[in-house]
Design goal:
This protein is of the alpha/beta class. 48% of the residues lie in helices and 15% in strands. The chain contains 8 helices and 7 strands.
């Protein structure tokens, strides 16, 4: 399917690995120019080579998305190298994994900076241009815990739900401007973050990481853990012309794990 976004400029946060990289690759395959950021230059170089192999113009920046000055530098570099931003995919690392009693004020503050406030900052930078051109796509990558909280992920469960609220309110504000705003809520996807959480949970349960993954897969109606490319395809669709009437949604990509009706 041609999603009608060839030539659009996309910024994908944390795009050197995992779900962010899958999103960047999917958008590049649709003909977008893609800017990605990440913490490691080596991983960014590898991802850039993959994007360019697809024929995409690509830009990379070493960025700590918890820092406002880094986000601004990335955005300015993107516009200088590729042009005004049409598509934004916000993707952030997960905050500290712990139950409520194991969290300090510092943990909560860090969680806000790395999970919520950085998304606000990225969005704030691209919105004026999208409004001026009367076209834009914003996709926030969050987590299934926005709909089905998990005690070990107290901060994430709280802030991801907040991002769903931001998604809805911003969609209401920008629909008249030809902009869609949606959130993608991945379930268990095989990424570095998934491996880290598996180690934490396996230790707490007194089992091996392999046993944890086996139990996890068995708990998913699809019977397996997802692959990043499966999320990338959905993100690309949400950014495409065929999804122009889809906005304000928090879409689960979880193999059927969350059982709630809404």
């Amino acid at each position: 399917m041609d999603l009608g976004i060839r030539g659009k400029v996309a910024m994908v946060a944390a795009g050197s690995k995992g779900i962010g990289r899958a999103a960047a690759v999917a958008l590049a395959a649709e003909g977008c120019a893609v800017s990605i950021c990440g913490r490691g230059a080596e991983a960014l170089d590898t991802a850039k080579a993959e994007l360019e192999a697809l024929g995409a113009r690509a830009f990379t920046a070493v960025v700590d998305v918890s820092k406002a000055e880094d986000i601004l530098r990335w955005h300015e570099g993107t516009v200088a190298a590729l042009g005004p931003v049409d598509i934004l995919v916000t993707n952030t690392g997960g905050p500290k994994a712990a139950t409520f009693d194991g969290l300090s004020d510092g943990d909560w503050s860090a969680g806000v900076d790395t999970t919520l406030l950085n998304v606000v900052r990225m969005t704030r930078l691209v919105l004026p241009g999208m409004r001026a051109r009367r076209w834009g796509r914003i996709v926030h990558i969050t987590s299934l815990v926005a709909k089905q909280p998990y005690p070990l992920l107290t901060i994430s469960s709280t802030l991801r739900a907040g991002l769903s609220g931001l998604t809805r309110t911003l969609a209401l504000e920008t629909a008249k401007d030809g902009i869609t705003v949606n959130a993608l809520l991945p379930g268990h996807i095989m990424t570095d973050r998934q491996h880290h959480l598996a180690e934490v949970k396996a230790k707490a349960e007194g089992i091996t990481v392999e046993e944890h993954f086996a139990r996890q897969a068995a708990s998913i109606p699809a019977g397996r853990i997802g692959e990043p490319r499966e999320t990338g395809a959905v993100i690309a669709f949400l950014c495409g012309q065929p999804a122009s009437y889809v906005t304000g949604q928090s879409l689960l990509v979880d193999g059927g794990l969350v059982s709630g009706t809404f």
